[in-house]
Design goal:
Elements: H1 2-16, E1 21-29, E2 34-42, H2 43-54, H3 66-80, E3 81-85, E4 88-89, E5 93-100, E6 103-111, E7 118-123, E8 134-141, E9 144-151, E10 156-160
Parallel strand pairs: 1-8
Antiparallel strand pairs: 1-2, 2-6, 3-4, 3-7, 5-6, 7-10, 8-9
Length: about 160
């Protein structure tokens, strides 16, 4: 009886258990000597953390003040995502975000970055919100993609080419 109950409850538990994941893609664009970064973060999770930090009523999907929302998102990402290329921390400039289904795609760029051999990433986006947060990291250079998974509390990874 216990095994039958387990087989019935497990799929129900999985179906209703929240899944917390963000995806960050870091791509070197050789022709422009820049690193382009995109972060896919569930909008409700990002909105919750921004509300807590700013203590403001916010709506990320329909912001009353888009410039304020951009400023809050830029500040949050700049405190929780760091990219180090060949031993040098690069400055990520926030470009903006767009909504796609239930996710916010946030875009950043670092200019004057030539090809590299090693990238170190620190990404603890949403770690303060979700003990089970997973951050997927994809690094692309010269068409080669290397992927890593960071499970909270692990927040750093090194990728070599």
């Amino acid at each position: 009886m216990g095994l039958i109950l387990y087989k019935w409850l497990l799929p129900a538990f999985i179906a209703f258990h929240p899944f917390y994941v963000s995806v960050t893609e870091i791509e070197h664009v050789k022709a422009k000597n820049e690193v382009q970064v995109s972060c896919r973060i569930f909008a409700d999770d990002l909105e919750t953390v921004l509300k807590k930090e700013s203590k403001l009523p916010l709506d990320i999907i329909h912001p009353a003040n888009k410039a304020q929302m951009d400023s809050l998102i830029a500040g949050y990402i700049n405190r929780h995502l760091f990219v180090n290329v060949d031993g040098k921390l690069i400055k990520l400039t926030y470009l903006g975000y767009k909504m796609e289904e239930e996710a916010a795609w946030c875009f950043l760029v670092a200019q004057h970055v030539t090809s590299f051999k090693q990238v170190k990433i620190k990404d603890d986006i949403l770690y303060s919100e979700h003990p089970n947060q997973i951050n997927m990291i994809h690094v692309i250079r010269d068409g080669v993609r290397k992927s890593n998974k960071l499970d909270n509390p692990k927040a750093a990874v090194s990728v070599s080419f």
